Amino acid sequence: MENPLDPGASISARLVEAGRRLERRGWSLGTSGNFSAVVSEDPLRLAITASGVDKASLSEKDIVEVDENARLVRGDGRPSAEAHLHVAVVKARGAGAVLHTHSVWTTVLTDATEAGEISIRGYEMLKGLAGVQTHEHEESVPILENAQDMPKLAGNLEGILAKRPGAHAFLLRRHGLYTWGRDLPEAVRHAEILEFLFEVVGRSRSLGRD
Amino acid sequence: MENPLDPGASISARLVEAGRRLERRGWSLGTSGNFSAVVSEDPLRLAITASGVDKASLSEKDIVEVDENARLVRGDGRPSAEAHLHVAVVKARGAGAVLHTHSVWTTVLTDATEAGEISIRGYEMLKGLAGVQTHEHEESVPILENAQDMPKLAGNLEGILAKRPGAHAFLLRRHGLYTWGRDLPEAVRHAEILEFLFEVVGRSRSLGRD
Amino acid sequence: MENPLDPGASISARLVEAGRRLERRGWSLGTSGNFSAVVSEDPLRLAITASGVDKASLSEKDIVEVDENARLVRGDGRPSAEAHLHVAVVKARGAGAVLHTHSVWTTVLTDATEAGEISIRGYEMLKGLAGVQTHEHEESVPILENAQDMPKLAGNLEGILAKRPGAHAFLLRRHGLYTWGRDLPEAVRHAEILEFLFEVVGRSRSLGRD
Amino acid sequence: MENPLDPGASISARLVEAGRRLERRGWSLGTSGNFSAVVSEDPLRLAITASGVDKASLSEKDIVEVDENARLVRGDGRPSAEAHLHVAVVKARGAGAVLHTHSVWTTVLTDATEAGEISIRGYEMLKGLAGVQTHEHEESVPILENAQDMPKLAGNLEGILAKRPGAHAFLLRRHGLYTWGRDLPEAVRHAEILEFLFEVVGRSRSLGRD
C-alpha cells in the first residue's frame, strides 16, 4: 500500500494495496488472510478478497462483492467463508474496513494462552488505536475458539462484540487476528499496531516475562 | 513470483518467479534449494533449477530439463543431484511441481527432534494443504536422514511415500523441506504454509511449549 | 533512503527518504515514530513529520515546520506532540536531526529492565557513534518513564541530557528510542547502530545472558 | 546483487551489487561491514569499500583501491582500517574477494562463546563451502579477539590462517564475520551460508541446545 489514504483510488485498488502491504509484512502467507471494505451501507455491500487467493500477487480481479448475508453479488470467485465474520463486524461496529491477518506470533500466542483473552497494557503503541488517549490503556483482546461452521462462529462473535463494546479486535485460536476501522487506513493502522504488540508480548515471554 | 497462477507464462518463467519468491522469503540462501515443474508426463520431463545456481539472480537460463532418470536432456548446466528426489516425488504422487526450501527453522527443528517425524495439528493454516477440510487435521511430516548418495536416498523416499499416502511433504534432517502440488501455485502455497507452521513450532518451543 | 548523504535534495525530501528507510526496517509501524531536521538555527526551525502519518507512504506533504516552542509555523497538519522532545534535543545537543524509532526490541527491553538505563559495552558497532574510538566504550542509554504531558516530559529530558553530556540517545519506557546527529546521515547511522545493539542485547538475554 | 556472476560488469559495479545485497539481508547496518575484490595480483591491488560508507546507498564512487600494504592508490575516500585484514586474507588464501559482514547473530554468538572457535557440523548447508563434499564436514570457525590496532590484528590473523589451512572464515569477537572466495560470487555464497548457519546455531541455543 503505497498510499492507503489516497482518496482517488477505487475501493478495490485500495484493498489490493492494503493486502499486498500486509503480505509483505509476512502476515498473509499461503493464501491466508482476507480483507474487506464497505462499498455501500444501504443495502450493505462489502468488497472482499476472494477465497484462496495468493496475496503476493493480489489484483483487482481477486476482489468480489458480497451482501449483508455474505452472499456473492458481484465478481468472479467464491467469497471466503469468513466473509460471515467480516459482515458481523461491520454490523456490530459500523466499521468501514475489516482486516484478517494470519501471523506467526498471533498463532503462537493463542496456542500458548489458556485464557479466553490476551490483555496488553502500558505500551505507547496502544495510543494508535482509535479513541485511546494514553499508554496506560489496557486493551483486552478476546480469543474465540476456532471452528469451521462460519455462520455459528459469526453468532458467537456477535455475542462477544456486544459484551465488549470497547474491543478493537479479536483473535481466533491458532488462526489469527481480526481488526477493523472506520476506514481502510485506520484498519491498516490497527493491524500494524496489534501485530506489533503481539510480537512484543511473544518476545517478552521468550525472555521469561509472563 | 508476481503471479504464479499466470497461465500465459512459460514453465521456466514461472519456475524463476517461484524460486525468486522463496529466496526473498529467506528460504534459499547460498545457492541452496531447488525447484522443478513437470513439462511432459509421457515421456516424463522435468524443468528444474541447475545445480549451484544463485536463487536471488535466478533466470530462465538457469533452468534445465531432466528425464525420468534425472538425466539432463536439455539446457546448459548440471541438474542438481537432488533431481532424483524430485523425480521420485513426481512418480509417487503425480505432482506437477516440487519445491525444496532450505530454511533456518526446518534446519533447527530437524536437528532438535529425535523422532522420525514432526506432527502438526490444530492450526487453521493446515487447511491450505490440498484436501484438508479442517484445522483439526494432523499433518505428520516424516524426517529422512540426510545422505549424499542420492539414488539410495531416493529409494528410501519411495518407501516413505508409499507408507504415508496422505503426507504433503517430507523433511531431510539438518537440511530442509520438500513439498509439492498438482501445479506450481499449489506447491508454492504448500511451501509457504509448511514453512510458516515450522516457524510456529520453533517459536512455540522457544516459549517452552513442546 | 537511497542516499541520505545527497546534498542536492531538499530537507523534506531527505526526511522522507530517512523515514521510509526506518519504516522498511520495521521500526515505525502503525504511524509510530517521528523524524526531524533543523531548517534554520536562528530563528530555530525544525522540519518534522506531522502527527499520525503513515510512514510507509510518507511524502513531502507530510512534513511540517515548527519553531523553538514546537508550534506549527508552516505546512498542513498537526506537529506531533513529541515535537517538544525534538526541540529539547536540538537545543541541548546542537543536533541537526533527531529520529524517534519505535521498535519491538526497544519496547521489549525497556519493559524488561527495572533500572533507569541500559548499558552496552564491548561491541565494535559502538564505534559508529560520533566520537567513539574503541569497541571498549560503554554507552549508557537512559530510560525515561513514558508520559503524555509532553512539555513536562521535555523538562525531564532536559535534566537528563544535562547530566549525561556523552549520551547519544535515550529511551522512553515501553515506547521507543530517540537518537540524533549533527546531520541527518549521522542520525540515521546512530538509529541503525542503536537498534542493532538493542536487538543484540535482547537476543543475548533470550540465550540466558544478562 | 542481481547477478553477481555477470562477467560483463566492472569490479566496482559488482562490489556495489554484493554490498547492497548483504545490506538488504540486514548484515551491514550503520555503515558497518566492508567488501573487497582483487583488481590485479602483481602488483596486488584491491578494490574496497571506503570507510564510513552507508551500504544501503552504496555506489561505485564509494569504492577505492589499495595496494599490498592497504594504502590508498586510487579513488576518493579513506580505505577502512580493516583493509589490512582484507590484504592479509588475500595473501594467505589467494582469495579473489573478501567480505566482512556484521550481523546480529555473529555478534551475539561471539559474545556468548567462551572458546576461541565455533564449530559447526552435520548440516547440508556446509556443502556450499568450497571443497566440502558432505554434510558430515565439521567447519571450525576461529574467533579472534577484537582490537583497534589493525596491523597487529592482521599479524594475529596471519598466524591463525597459517595454522588452519582449511578454514573458510573467521570471526571477530562482538564484531562480525570475515569470509572469502576465489571470486566474488563464491565469497557471497560463503557469506550467506555462514550467516545462515550462525543463525541456526543461535536459534538452536535459544531452544536449549548447546
Describe the protein.
Four copies of one chain form a homotetramer. The first copy, chain A, is built from five helices and nine strands. Chain A is an alpha+beta fold and 210 residues long. A nine-stranded mixed sheet of chain A has the order 4-3-2-1-5-9-8-7-6, sandwiched between helices. Chains in contact: A-B, A-C, B-D, C-D.
Q: What is the secondary structure topology, with strand pairs?
A:
4 copies of one chain form a homotetramer.
Chain A: H1 11-24, E1 34-41, E2 44-49, E3 63-66, E4 72-74, H2 83-93, E5 97-101, H3 104-112, E6 117-121, E7 138-144, H4 150-163, E8 169-172, E9 176-181, H5 184-206
Helix pairs in contact in A: 1-5, 2-4, 3-5
Strand content of chain A: 15-25%
Most strands sheet of chain A: 9 strands, mixed
Strand order of the largest sheet of chain A: 4-3-2-1-5-9-8-7-6
Q: What is the molecular shape of chain A?
A: globular
Rg of chain A, Cα atoms, Å: 16 Å
Short description:
Chain A is an alpha+beta fold. The first copy, chain A, contains five helices and nine strands.
Key traits:
nine-stranded mixed beta sheet; homotetramer; 210 residues; 5 helices; alpha+beta
